[in-house]
Design goal:
alpha/beta, about 20% strand, globular, about 260 residues, two-stranded antiparallel ribbon
Length: about 260
Amino acid sequence: MTHVELVAPSADSWTSVGDGPGVLVLHGFTGNPTAVRPLARRLAAEGHAVDVPRLPGHGTTWRDLATTTWHDWLREADAALDRLGDLPCAVVGLSMGGTLALRLAQQRPADVTSMVLINPFLTFHHPLKPALGLLKRIVPVFPGVGNDIARPGSDELAYDRVPLRAAASVFELQDAVRDRLHEITAPTLIFTSRNDHIARPSDSGLVLDRIASPRREQTWLERSFHVATLDYDADMIAERTIAWLAETTGWASGSGGGGGEDVT
């Protein structure tokens, strides 16, 4: 197996065996599992089977990210959903991880029984966006957008640079997902930070307005910025997510007894 140099051990994929419904947890663009690992561990402690994949090009160097597209990231998310087996599965996604979660719900409605989206990233507004096709050949990178966290000392270990080629692919993913939001029927809970410097809070409203889910709820976060899973509201997000999964999957929190077993 080829050795991969990670930014930190926490940036690697993580899984936990459990008796409860499976939960796929997806990190955001330029980030890695570091941002969602604490939430994943809380879910595993409730007995859920949990899979946190490291999306291709993430958790190593920005140069690796420049060689990937949203099709690669979705392929890994797909594989992780398959690894959870025949269990009823929920998908939890932060930022672009939420965008991927929506895509999975569009393509695999029978396999995604519930969703939790944390500051989903569905639109990008910038006057230079139409010129990205040309710009990515002239200016390959721009400054990083990670660590939008209000809580001092928190670090998601995101890249300090963003490859324009990969960013352009994110925008393609957003367009594809927005066009099919009306197909989504899975129960959906959205956490939205009032002060988010990456994703517009209106992106959450866009999802809520367009999906066909008979059950959809929004919880506003007043103290956290974009990476809310490492911010002041992290505990509340974990507690409400656990309750939501119990409500929408029929799993009684903690009924697994053992709290899960780390595999990686």
